[in-house]
Amino acid sequence: MHRSISTSIKITAAMSYLGILALVPLVLGKVHPYVGFHARQGVVIWIWEVLAVFSLVIPVIGKAFFQVSSLLCFILSVVGLVAVFLGRTWRFPLVAQLADKL
């Protein structure tokens, strides 16, 4: 996005990448399309994190899946936060396709 985005909009969008707080911008996403974009991606990342926790019940492979997923979700969240504060709308592979369906 090349137009100027207010600080309050950026802060609301940043909540999208802070775990369960992603639900707040999702509800408020109708207020501004920028917030809605990041909220949908943030919710997909959060759901992935929750599913990764449930994978821990699977011996050996579950722990490995959890560790890789946790690292990827952390990286995506940090990149998402950077994108928000730069005023960008970076579409994450796979995450964006799922987010478009929300």
How is this structure best described in words?
The protein is 66% helix and 0% strand. With 102 residues, the chain is mainly α. Helix 1 (7-14) packs parallel to helix 3 (33-54) and helix 3 (33-54) runs antiparallel to helix 4 (61-86). The longest helix is centred in the C-terminal third of the chain and has 26 residues, at 61-86. The chain is elongated and about 50 Å long. It starts with 6 loop residues before the first helix and ends with a helix. The model has no long low-confidence stretch (mean pLDDT 88).
Question: What's the short version?
Answer:
The protein is an all-alpha fold. It is 66% helix and 0% strand.
Instruction: Report the total helices.
Output: 5
Oligomeric status: single chain
How much of the sequence lies in strands comes to under 5%
Briefly note the structural class of the backbone: mainly alpha
Quickly count the domains. Answer: 1
Shape: elongated
Unreliable sequence segments: none
Q: How can the largest sheet be summarized?
A: none
DSSP E strands, number: 0
* Fraction in helix: 55-70%
How far apart the termini lie comes to 21 Å
Global mean pLDDT:
88
Radius of gyration: 14 Å
What sequence of helices (H) and strands (E) makes up the elements? HHHHH
